[in-house]
């Protein structure tokens, strides 16, 4: 007691410089103690990783901001092995055997605290933001009817409208010979946003028709960058309460402002859809078009008897536009990139498409789902460029988690670095080569190796927290690819083709970030992607010609 009084008296008697020196001393001592603890007694101290990443989350924040996190993770696993400590409290585990234990239905984990900031501007958690396992399962029950087999059959008709339009726009100017060069990244993006808005709200953004709404992808990109890195800031607990408010604009700059602008856009779309539903209800009618929000607005939880609140709907609205449009868009442009760089794969696919369908009206399920090479091309593209390529944090729950000989205590984050796993040569021989045949059993590819490849392919993740839009994505991607390739020949544009390695940057809108100096972005044969929760890209530049032989 006495010593505290003496200390207090000395403090009061001290001069400003003395106070400043003492404060700096305390500050430095605090960090020395914290860093020493993280390198010695912390439960993850024994795991390898870059030194700065083992003592702080700042390297992770920086790579998230740059869009290069997946490349950084790849480099780390090459250097340190299958288990890497990429943050003070976080591990990424790149073994296929760990996947069911981290993502399976019985995994003793929940989503990590990064998810708390994901859709924070919306005012309520989206389904993806629900960290509590029980509440998440409840939200999934609301979404389930919108993604059921029946809903998918309805969705196919709506997606076809955008796919037909995509083929017409990509093919414009190709009637008399090869067209001018076109950036397929842009057209794929417009397709992704148009089909998801048409399907989601019954009203397309119309980007394939006019440039009026073409600002939305740029704003979403900016919002995603912000949300991605902010969630990992070491002092996020202090920042989170300010998020979603006007203060966000001042602190976070343009990217934070775009995050709010994006939320407002999604909210206004939803408000218009709710109004339409109310008008229909007042007239005792049901919407003829069964779009996603038809299901969500009429969904009643079978156990609780409750409907979703407006705030929850708003959060899901922002999520569905982002999650639905961009995953499909990047996969479509990446698929074209790989096909066009390996003409033998392109001709195999074109042949399969043109011998399977009689005319454009014929392009639909169930036949659409019976083309093995088409499906394999998409699986291979999603292997090479998973739109969510980096480790998504899962926090170990009470009781801990045993994976092989390692025990992970409660509270630490574990996760699967999907891009790293997808380039594991032990599972995918020649991992940088686009080889759809690795997903089709044949005399040269055993059924066991196909099963191994499929089990280690996680673009949609697996288990109860996986992507609910997986089947819808495959339908959208197949419709788009088949409609374009059924009626048109496509080739890489002469000169700059875009998309790969250093030559990738065509359009200032997309290509920021980059770690060329570290040798991570040098692969010309790899479709370049920037990981900001959703993947961003540019190119390929293509020329298009109307198919020579008119379909019968
Ligand atoms: C190629 C396209 C797509 C890919 C690769 C993809 C991938 C993923 C992944 C990996 C997740 C899990 C994220 C996490 O755990 O944080 C996810 C979640 C989600 N995706 Fe997709 N997605 C795609 C397209 C779609 C589409 C078309 C929709 C809807 C229309 C959609 C809706 C959702 C939703 C609602 C979630 C949150 C699910 C939950 O938390 O329960 N996605 N997606």
UniProtKB/TrEMBL annotation:
Highest taxon listed in the record's lineage: Eukaryota
Required cofactor(s): heme
A Pfam family: p450
Molecular function terms, GO-annotated: heme binding; iron ion binding; monooxygenase activity; oxidoreductase activity, acting on paired donors, with incorporation or reduction of molecular oxygen
Transmembrane segments: 20-39
Coiled-coil stretches noted in the UniProt entry, renumbered to this chain: none
Binding site for heme: 467
InterPro entries in the cross-refs: Cyt_P450, Cyt_P450_E_grp-IV, Cyt_P450_sf, Cytochrome_P450_monoxygenase
Keyword Transmembrane helix carried by entry: yes
Keywords: Heme, Iron, Membrane, Metal-binding, Monooxygenase, Oxidoreductase, Transmembrane, Transmembrane helix
SUPFAM superfamilies: Cytochrome P450
Family under the similarity heading: Belongs to the cytochrome P450 family.
PANTHER family: CYTOCHROME P450, CYTOCHROME P450 MONOOXYGENASE ATNE-RELATED
Protein name (record): Benzoate 4-monooxygenase cytochrome P450
Source organism of the structure: Amylocarpus encephaloides
């Amino acid at each position: 007691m006495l010593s505290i009084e003496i200390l207090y008296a000395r403090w009061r008697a001290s001069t400003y410089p003395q106070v400043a020196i003492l404060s700096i001393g305390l500050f430095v001592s605090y960090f020395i103690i914290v860093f020493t603890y993280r390198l010695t007694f912390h439960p993850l101290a024994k795991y390898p990783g870059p030194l700065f990443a083992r003592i702080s989350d700042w390297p992770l924040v920086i790579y998230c901001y740059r869009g290069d996190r997946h490349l950084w993770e790849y480099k780390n696993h090459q250097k340190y092995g299958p288990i890497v400590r990429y943050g003070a409290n976080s591990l990424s585990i790149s073994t296929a055997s760990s996947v069911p234990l981290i993502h399976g239905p019985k995994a003793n984990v929940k989503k990590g605290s990064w998810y708390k900031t994901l859709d924070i501007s919306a005012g309520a958690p989206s389904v993806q933001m629900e960290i509590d396992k029980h509440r998440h399962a409840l939200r999934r029950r609301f979404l389930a009817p919108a993604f059921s087999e029946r809903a998918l059959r309805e969705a196919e008709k709506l997606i076809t409208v955008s796919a037909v339009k995509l083929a017409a726009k990509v093919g414009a100017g190709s009637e008399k010979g090869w067209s001018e060069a076109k950036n397929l990244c842009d057209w794929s993006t417009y397709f992704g946003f148009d089909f998801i808005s048409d399907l989601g709200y019954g009203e397309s953004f119309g980007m394939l028709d006019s440039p009026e709404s073409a600002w939305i992808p740029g704003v979403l990109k900016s919002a995603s960058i912000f949300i991605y890195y902010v969630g990992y800031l070491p002092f996020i607990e202090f920042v989170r309460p300010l998020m979603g408010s006007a203060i966000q604009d001042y602190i976070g700059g343009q990217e934070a402002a775009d995050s709010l602008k994006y939320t407002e856009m999604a909210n206004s779309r939803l408000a218009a859809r709710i109004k339409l539903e109310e008008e229909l209800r007042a007239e005792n009618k049901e919407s003829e078009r069964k779009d996603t929000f038809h299901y969500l607005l009429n969904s009643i939880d079978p156990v609780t008897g409750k409907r979703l609140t407006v705030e929850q709907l708003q959060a899901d609205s922002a999520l569905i536009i982002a999650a639905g449009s961009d995953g499909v868009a990047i996969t479509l442009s990446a698929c074209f990139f790989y096909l066009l760089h390996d003409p033998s794969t392109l001709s195999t696919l074109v042949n399969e498409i043109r011998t399977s369908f009689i005319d454009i009206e014929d392009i639909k399920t169930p036949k659409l789902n019976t083309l093995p090479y088409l499906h394999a091309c998409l699986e291979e593209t999603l292997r090479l460029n998973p739109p969510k390529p980096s480790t998504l944090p899962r926090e170990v729950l009470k009781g801990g988690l045993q994976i092989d000989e390692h025990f992970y205590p409660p509270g630490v984050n574990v996760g699967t670095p999907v891009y790293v796993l997808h380039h594991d040569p032990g599972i995918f021989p020649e991992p940088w080569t686009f080889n759809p045949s690795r997903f089709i059993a044949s005399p040269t590819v055993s059924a066991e190796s196909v099963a191994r490849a499929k089990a280690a392919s996680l673009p949609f993740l697996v288990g109860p927290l996986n992507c609910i839009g997986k089947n819808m994505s495959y339908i959208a991607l197949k419709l788009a690819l088949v409609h374009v390739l059924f009626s048109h020949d496509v080739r890489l544009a002469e000169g700059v083709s875009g998309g790969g390695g250093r030559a990738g940057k065509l359009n200032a809108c997309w290509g920021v970030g980059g770690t060329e100096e570290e040798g991570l972005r040098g692969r010309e044969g790899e479709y370049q992607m920037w990981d900001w929760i959703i993947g961003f890209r540019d190119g390929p530049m293509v020329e298009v010609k109307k198919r020579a032989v008119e379909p019968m």
